[in-house]
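Possible regression after last week's pipeline update?

I re-ran a chain I had predicted before the update to compare outputs. Posting the input and the new output here so someone can diff against the archived version. Not blocking, just want to make sure nothing changed silently.
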Amino acid sequence: MPPVKGFWSLTLYNEQHFFAENPLGRYSLGTKNKSLKPNADGSMTLYVQSESPGADKESNWLPAPKGADFSLYVRAYWPEAAAMNRQWTPPAVVKVN
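New output (post-update):
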């Protein structure tokens, strides 16, 4: 998780840099999403895709526009030193086909 004293978010924007409309009306995931589910090892998988990853994973789903470009931004509010001095960096986005 991002090392913050405040909160963090992963926000998705469409090609025009606006929120991408989606069936959940969800535009970001982060600290404020109390239903996020960690993996058994304590890590967290966030699903950024156009189709639901399934009901059991939907709490960690950030809907993306189908067949269109989009941008992802990680925001760290009141970051701890590790985020400022690059001891922590966001994990890579992994494309799964």
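Follow-up from reviewer: compared with the archived run. The chain has a mean pLDDT of 96. Marking as no regression found.
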